[in-house]
Write a structure and sequence with these properties.
Two copies of one chain form a homodimer. With 122 residues, chain A is α+β, with helices and mostly antiparallel strands. Helices cover 56% and strands 13% of the residues of chain A. In chain A, a hairpin with a 7-residue loop joins strand 2 and strand 3. In chain A, helix 1 crosses helix 3, helix 1 packs across helix 4 and helix 2 crosses helix 3. The N terminus of chain A is likely disordered. The interface between A and B is large, with 36 and 36 residues. Chain A binds a DNA duplex (21 and 21 nucleotides) through helix 2, helix 3 and strand 3.
Chain lengths: 122, 122
DNA sequence: ATATGAACATCATGTTCATTG
DNA sequence: CAATGAACATGATGTTCATAT
């Protein structure tokens, strides 16, 4: 089940973080995997974080498996040949629940970092 | 060299975080491994983080290998038989340098979390 | 029994490759 | 050749065991 947190309870892992962003983007429209990857790369690179596409696909898959997302396919217009996999929210309840749970988790992580900054650099 | 950050540049890993706390504690006195483990467990458990002893020992070892810490042994007084391994700062320059570098890293991580909290929960 | 580690197991993630339209 | 994903490789960490006092 919940692999959103390591057993020791240290910081959130990348997978869970990506899932959160994926849900959030897909709530506001339809997206396909590579497009999401590129958007996230772009959005985070100024913080030195560059997510890799296989990890994004794995996150999408988990969200499918959990029944949060569904998908459909579509022929891309501009390119004659190339089929694209679009993602949509399947279960909004679950999506919101996930977001809610992750908020607490993000805040917990923030406290961990804040504590370190205060403890170590007085 | 620097395994203090994953290639993708996501959040800091536990090892680096522990190294920081180990340096910081050992700066202010002598400690042995299990003692440090227990102190950290205790200090972080209210945030759901419970470091495991092998990870602490691995962190200590890395700090030794990097020339930041040195160690000595000592017979424990109260217990007749039991030898303890104490740690001291070997190279204060390096220790401070590590702390300095990690400060930036912690702040970067903080920004990552803060961004998510703002982006996802407006 | 306590402290230290090694050894082993598992998961999280990165890198490289294959397929398919 | 862009998009998807599998397959493989590596790394980070947890669990269990061995050893010495």
């Amino acid at each position: 089940m919940s692999n959103d947190r390591k057993k020791s309870g240290f910081l959130i892992n990348q997978r869970a973080f990506l899932k959160l962003y994926l849900i959030s983007n897909i709530e506001n429209g339809r997206w396909y995997g590579m497009q999401l990857t590129d958007k996230l790369k772009d959005e985070f690179k100024h913080l030195g974080y560059i997510p890799k596409h296989p990890e994004v696909y794995r996150a999408l898959k988990e969200l499918m498996d959990e029944g949060i997302l569904k998908r459909g396919t579509l022929k891309k217009e501009d390119s004659h040949f190339q089929e694209i996999t679009l993602y949509y929210i399947r279960d909004l309840e679950k999506a919101l629940e996930y977001k809610k749970k992750m908020k607490l988790e993000l805040e917990r992580c923030e406290q961990l970092l804040k504590k370190a900054l205060l403890d170590i650099y007085p």
